[in-house]
Amino acid sequence: MMGFKRAAEDEPEISRNKIQKLDQPSVAISGKYLEEDFREQFNQSWSKNEALRGNDYQLKSDPFQVAILQGFLEENEKECEVTRELEREFTEMDWKRKQMDLYEFYQTMDLCAVTKKFLAGFYKNLKEKVLPMMQELTGIRLSSVSASCSMYNAGDYLLVHDDLLTDRRIAFVFYLSPWESHRQWSAEHGGALELFKADENILPVFPVTDCIYPRNNQLVFFKVCEKSFHQVGEVTTFEYPRLTINGWFHGPVDQESVPHSSIIIDTHYFGSEPDGMQLPEWINNVFLIDEVKYNVQKKVEMFSEISLGEFLNPDIFDVMAETLRTSTDLRWVIKGPAHLRKYEILDFSTVKSGPLSDLYKLFTSRDIFRLLHEYTELDLAGPKAKSPTCAIELQRWQKSCYTVIGDPTSYSDCTLDVLLYLNAQENVGVVTYLVPDGEQHPSSNSEEPDEADPVLLTVYPKDNVLNLVYRAEGTTKFTKYVSKNVFLEQEQAGGRNGHPYTYILACSYRE
Predict the structure, then answer these.
(1) What does the DSSP 8-state code read for residue 154?
(2) Distances in Å between the alpha carbon of 321 and those of 364, 430, 450, 503?
(3) Which of 54, 83, 442, 464 could form a disulfide linkage to 178, CB 3.0–4.6 angstroms apart?
(4) How far is CA 108 from the centre of its chain?
(5) Beta carbons of 419 and 505 less than 8 angstroms apart
(6) What does each of the 511 residues of the chain score in pLDDT, given as a tens digit?
């Protein structure tokens, strides 16, 4: 785990010595937040859903209610005695790596069992002082608190979610960044709490509406509701980790806090196109030989997947890739909602003719349905075929794009997935197949998930390789978040004209 050692070494030794000479500090809430005038004013604004701003605090009302309290703990802002001690105890904690479709970061056990002086003192304050204070500020009935420590190093993130789960009523994040040169974070460091608006269907939409950056001794909290969509933006600095104590205040559940349905059926399946395609003009003739088809079918039968290298004729593939790199009139549309995915798709309806139009026709043609039938023995063609269908997207991927597992209804049917990469780049568009646990699958709103589910298959981007994956009922997939720190060779000067995108032709076929 990087971050702690370097951050500690950056601090002058004299600062540590000074702390030792002082009377041992204690964990206490700043008196300014205990004053009656502040609480009354805050409660009135909260109840009316109005914005409020003071010298050290702010209440936002858009896109949902979020409060920011700076200098939350009582301490000397220059010496940061308490937050330094909390940070020191962070280095002594046992950390567990959390890594799945929705997140990558480190987390500790729940603080209810911690015995370290300052962390135990912080948790005691949460139970005895902050919980009743939250009730008074918000008017929300609360009964308990849960909290843990989190650490995000460079490249770590937590994607869009709403925190709605069981009896969570208020979410909170307390920030630790006591290092003299890094007490206030900015956009160049990443790690912001990023807020999203919800549309008329109560789904989060791009772009990010607001950003709250880490700041030492700052508490942020918000009411957990069906519109409280947020994420932790990727940490991009290698100098310091993003350290927080975070969790939820729990209370009686009312109708408003019941999790809403996230079922989104937005994949359009349609039948094959009647136009015939001359497959030998398009496809490497090796893959049209009967013996090769038979061998492909046997491997798919055994392993449910296969990768066919140099699938398209090289000249055809090069034309496709060059068209994507150089065309300026293609219409790309970002695909959400934000809590499920972020990438762009080509609006095929605006492509009237040319190589990309031909690519669309090829993978929706009766001839490709017939070829896939021969590769898999699925009833996509032939006398037993009833009404086979397909869905097709040409996706454009770059840094910060992703998909997550999503609602279980999205993988309730058997599907043949076909993936073809163009302008492939390492770590961009990596697809993972797995069987989630349903009850506790990782894209739930919990930040404390169970162990990662077993991965069945990972598809890595490689140019002109046709990847066939039979996805049985209950099997799902996600495409790994593309880090902002990932090295994109083709983004550099001289690398294919500095083109930063990877393209994925993603098709799904059903019997």
Answers:
(1) T
(2) 19, 19, 41, 9
(3) 83
(4) 20
(5) yes
(6) 445 544 444 544 444 444 444 456 889 999 999 999 999 999 999 999 999 999 999 999 999 999 999 999 999 999 999 999 999 999 999 999 999 899 999 999 999 999 999 999 999 999 999 999 999 999 999 999 999 999 999 999 999 999 998 899 999 999 999 999 999 999 999 999 999 999 999 999 999 999 999 999 999 999 999 999 999 999 999 999 999 999 999 999 866 544 554 545 456 666 766 667 789 999 999 999 999 999 999 999 999 999 999 999 999 999 999 999 998 889 999 999 999 999 999 998 888 889 999 999 999 999 999 999 999 999 999 999 999 999 999 999 999 999 998 766 667 789 999 999 999 998 999 999 998 764 333 333 344 444 545 789 999 999 999 999 999 988 899 999 999 987 665 555 444 456 789 999 999 999 9
The reported pTM is: 0.87
Buried b (16+ CB within 10 A) or exposed e, 388-398: bebebbbbbbb
CA 183 – CA 181 distance, rounded (Å): 6
Pairing of strands 193-198, 204-212: antiparallel
- In the chain, count of helices (H) and strands (E)? 11, 24
- How much helix, strand and coil, in percent to the nearest 5, is found in the chain? 25, 30, 45
Comparing CA positions, the residue from 121, 136, 131, 122 lying closest to residue 35 is 136
CA distance from start to end of the chain? 48
Contact 470, 304 (CB under 8 A): yes
